[in-house]
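Example pasted here:
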Amino acid sequence: MRRREFIGLLGGAAAAWPFAAVAQQQPALPVVALVNLRSAETSVRLVNAFRKGLDEAGCVEGQNVTVEYNWLEGRFDRLSSLMADLAHRRVAVIATVGSIYAAQAAKAATTSIPIVFSVGDDPVKLGLVASLARPGGNATGYNFLLVEIGTKRLELLHALVPKAVRFAMLVNPENVPVAARTLREVPEAAHAIGLQIQILNASTADEIEAAFVTLVRDQIEALFVAPDPYFISQRAQLATLTARYRIPAAYSTREDVEAGGLMSYGPNNQEAWRQVGVYTGRILKGEKPADLPVLQSTKFEFLINAQTAKALGIEVPNSILLLADEVIE
């Protein structure tokens, strides 16, 4: 190699050294750990809503924040070890969406890492915050009041099948907080309007199949499905079984009705995920969870699947159709 070429190469390498050093010194993006008991396949629109919330707060995934998605698919037993790992790695924020257990597990794992939750029950009673207006501590979020509106969901199902008397309620015993509250309030409401209600437990696909064998054996006329991430992930199985055995059923989310369920009544899940995204972004920008009041859902959706109603031989009264926010054809 000639001397002039060698000097040119050396000069070019030297010029590149500062840039390489700068690149190596770039700080890593803050990591948000999103924890959910659903599956990734059931949550595409919800994740988009979360990203929209982040964006509204000035945080863009891949540009100034990294989001680590943890889909547990109903595996409550994995929560404790996962949260311990997140606390050990000192992620920037833990976002737990749609699960009381996940929020409580995060709270038990760390008192310093910010937590943004969405839960379906009173977060003060759950021990997540000191008060709604002044959460204190390291957690805040969104209460979508899912458990509280269970009695309204039961009443709407009864309005669709007014002659039915024998109802069953499917609950997931693994989801203790939601199951306990639902078992306390819904049977009481059922008895108040003259309904008989039978409790069925299921936390696996096989147990769901077994529950339907019981439904048929006991001549159950309508089914109330308790709000639960695992049941949402099994919505196709539930829709198939209710169609096969011609059982009208009430659910808590839009996804259930889109999969073929008869009706749902519940909060707007996309709004809950968006709000969690907004609060996560605001915390990344420097605000403290203790200063961000817990938000509460104000919009609830009543959806009816017209095709399912027709297949079940249910003629939906105009009075009920007028109440529906959407009739899915």
